[in-house]
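To the team - zinc ion complex, inputs and output below.
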Amino acid sequence: MICSICKSDFNIDSEGGVEGNFGILPVAFCSTCLSCIYDLVDELEEELEEDQVPWLTRVELDTLQRKEENKAWNGQKKQEAQT
Ligand SMILES: [Zn+2]
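Output:
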C-alpha cells in the first residue's frame, strides 16, 4: 500500500496505518504519517478552541445587541402609543 502523504510503500497489516476516503478521494496513510495527522488535528483543535471563543462572544454580543435594539424599539412604540 502506498502512503498518500510520503508515498512510501507500507504494509497496513504489519505496520499499521489506515486507508479510507477523503470525500471521493481514496487515501492511505502509513503509521508515521497517521501519527503526524493526529498531531496536526490536535494542534488544529487547540487553535479552533481559541478562535471559537471570540467568535462565539461576537455572535452572542450581536444577539444581545439586537435584543436591546428590539427592546428599545418596542419601548419607543409603547411611548408613541401612550402619547
Ligand atoms: Zn506516510
